[in-house]
């Protein structure tokens, strides 16, 4: 008999957070958000929003807590819009 291998499927909640900052606070907010565990990518934008962050958490409740407690609480963040992702 050959040994069987089991593959563990890890489920991760993924979200994209569009972030608006106070005028002239983009760099400060960007620098502070780079320190937030759970943000896996962070990019500056031109247009209605100033930054976009790709976030990952163990579930959607944890993702919501990450946005509220660690992103929206950063001085200079004035608004966020979170888009949640799924895998097909």
Summarize the structure.
It is built from two helices and four strands; from the N terminus they run βαββαβ. It has 88 residues and is of the alpha+beta class.
Break the fold down into its secondary structure elements and pairings.
Layout lengths: L12 E9 L4 H8 L5 E6 L6 E7 L2 H12 L5 E9 L3
Antiparallel strand pairs: 1-3, 1-4, 2-3
Number of helices: 2
Residue stretches low in confidence (pLDDT < 50, at least 5 long) are none
Q: Characterize the largest beta sheet: strand count, sense, and whether it forms a barrel.
A: 4 strands, antiparallel
The sequence of SSEs as H and E is EHEEHE
What percent strand? 35-45%
The overall number of domains is 1
Query: What CATH architecture would you give?
Result: 2-Layer Sandwich
Helical content class: 10-25%
Let me know the number of strands: 4
> What is the CATH T-level topology?
Alpha-Beta Plaits
Shape: elongated
Mean pLDDT: 91
Strand order of the largest sheet: 2-3-1-4
Computed CA radius of gyration, to the nearest angstrom: 16 Å
The span between the termini is: 34 Å
CATH homology superfamily name: Lrp/AsnC effector binding domain/regulation of amino acid metabolism (RAM) domain
What class would the helix/strand composition place it in? alpha+beta
| Name of the top-level CATH class | Alpha Beta
Report on the structure:
The chain is of the alpha+beta class and 88 residues long. The chain has one domain (23-85): Lrp/AsnC effector binding domain/regulation of amino acid metabolism (RAM) domain (Alpha-Beta Plaits, 2-Layer Sandwich). It has helices spanning 26-33, 60-71, and strands spanning 13-21, 39-44, 51-57, 77-85.
